[in-house]
Amino acid sequence: MAVSATATHEEPRVVLSARGLTKHFGAFAAVKNVDLDVEHARVHALIGPNGAGKTTVFNLLTKFLQPTAGSITLLGTDITKTAPDKVARMGLVRSFQISAVFPHLTVLDNVRVALQRPNGLATQFWLPMSSLDRLNARADELIEAVGLKRERDALAADLSYGRKRVLEIATTLALDPKVLLLDEPMAGMGQEDIGTVSNIIREVAKTRAVLMVEHNLSVVADICHHVTVLQRGEILAEGDYATVSQDERVRLAYMGSEDA
Amino acid sequence: MSDMTHTAAKPRAERSATASMTYAIFLTAGLILLVLAPLFFYPIFLMKLLCFALFACAFNLLLGYTGLLSFGHATFFGGAAYFTAHVVKEWGFPPELGVLTGVVGAALLGLVMGYVAIRRQGIYFAMITLALSQMFFFFCLQAEFTEGEDGIQSVPRGHLFGFIDLSQSTNMYYFVLAVFLIGMVIIWRFINSPFGMILKSIRENEARATSLGYSVARYKLGAFVMSAALAGLAGGVKALVFQFATLTDVAWQMSGEVILMTLLGGIGTLIGPIFGAGLVVTLQNYLATSDFPVTIITGVVFMVCVLLFRRGIIGEFYASRLGRKLGFEHRR
Question: What is the total count of domains within chain A?
Answer without folding.
Answer: 1
